[in-house]
Amino acid sequence: xxxxxxxxxxxxxxxxxxxxxxxxxxxxxxxxxxxxxxxxxxxxxxxxxxxxxxxxxxxxxxxxxxxxxxxxxxxxxxxxxxxxxxxxxxxxxxxxxxxxxxxxxxxxxxxxxxxxxxxxxxxxxxxxxxxxxxxxxxxxxxxxxxxxxxxxxxxxxxxxxxxxxxxxxxxxxxxxxxxxxxxxxxxxxxxxxxxxxxxxxxxxxxxxxxxxxxxxxxxxxxxxxxxx
Length: 228
Fold this sequence. Notes:
Structural class: alpha+beta
Order of helices and strands: HEHHEEEEEEHH
Mean pLDDT: 88
Radius of gyration: 20 Å
Strand content: 15-25%
Number of helices: 5
Largest sheet: 5 strands, antiparallel
Distance between the termini: 41 Å
């Protein structure tokens, strides 16, 4: 692909904040894609794609935590995905374990696996730069039929909820998306921060569409860097 130089993004200071991050993590025609920007604020000693430092494909919690296997038969929303994306109203479905499982699977479920360099790759429903899949999803549940109240990590490989904390205050069920920077930084170094947020946009879009197709009205809260 031919590289095309583009002017700096209007309104971004190339020496501060997002503008500085953009400049220091941009590709350039005079160096390889995995070569760092020659700047002391960027690590020069990182070896991208080092098989000795590859992070796990997903989080893991200690044995003994309560686990709820979600139904594998995904309920039919009764409306094509294209209709949902076009803004058509979907019939309201009860938010139970099956419906929650459908939403989680269509966003962060493992849809296929493969072996690469002797390692098992887990491909999620939402795409990810470099197949790094740096995001995790938690469900803070309240009053969902078939799901105990609590904070649960979604195990996309098992299609199950792992209870990692007590129920949050309030009466609203919430999905929380968190990122594991090293999982994408392992390949892209500091540029991995960009992919973390790009991937989050893709995942949140799919979660929102899946919820909307069940007649739910999802809202978006503030992002968090700290998982439960």
